[in-house]
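Changelog-adjacent note: as of this version, every example in the card shows the full chain rather than a window. The one below runs 304 residues end to end.
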Amino acid sequence: MSLHGKVAVVTGSGRGLGLAYAQELARQGASVVINDVDAATADAAVKSITDAGGSAVAVVAPVGPTETAEQLVQTAVDAFGRLDILVTNAGVLRDTVLWKMSDDDFDTVIGVHLRGTFTCVRAAATYMRANEIAGRIICIGSPTGQRGNFGQTNYAAAKAGIVGMVRTWALELKKAGITANAVIPVAATAMTATVPYFAAAVEADEKGEAMPAFFRHDLGFGTSDDVAGLIAFLASDAAAGISGQAIGIGGDRLQLWSHPEAVATAYRDGGWTYDALVDGFTGAVGDLQSVGERFPPLPEDLQR
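Full-length structure tokens:
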């Protein structure tokens, strides 16, 4: 088992993608700390792992506060003797357009996704450095954080911020041998289940059938299990040389996202005045960058 003897914390792992990550880490030999805000859900997740012969315990607490982060690390140490892997998956949604988004809508999403990732990684990295453990930090991003999405100001900001933090942590933790990466999953979730475009794929998944090739191949859209293998790989010794990356996965597709780079550069003696920009901006930079996800038309046989 590739992760035998390793110990992992997976936040937001009571159900969905987080549970799939925790189960795959356990399948590969790691002992796992499950985290959820609902005790029954957390207990069921633990049971799914222990019934399969794995080792798991639960921490029932909301991600975001420093106290929860420290409790997660301490539980791993108390239950299994150490901590090697942290997967920050916990999150919530409060979708609405900018002019209707309340302070609470914004703060709640930022608090769980962005602050929660920060506090948990800080606690885990502090422990790993103090104990000379070449650990693995795996943070969950989203295509929304890479491209933007209508009605998700808070979520886009949080997910973009997570990738920015990961790049910084890769630099700061390199000397300690700790890697930090972001995974950008595309999979059937409670959110995508409500989107008509994905109806045929979600319907197939709910029936236990294979998703149509259009979704798996063309869109890179699949199941939670399609993502879980990458999580386990990045947690393993085989990925020791991979850090600071944003890696997309879903269905049959694996992607390496680029870091932001300048796509056009132009110079003008004396600098760029207002008048110069009015006259020459388009000619200087060329085509503008697109925003948002772009999906091809659904084949007729997959339309619902």
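Structural remarks: The radius of gyration is 21 Å.
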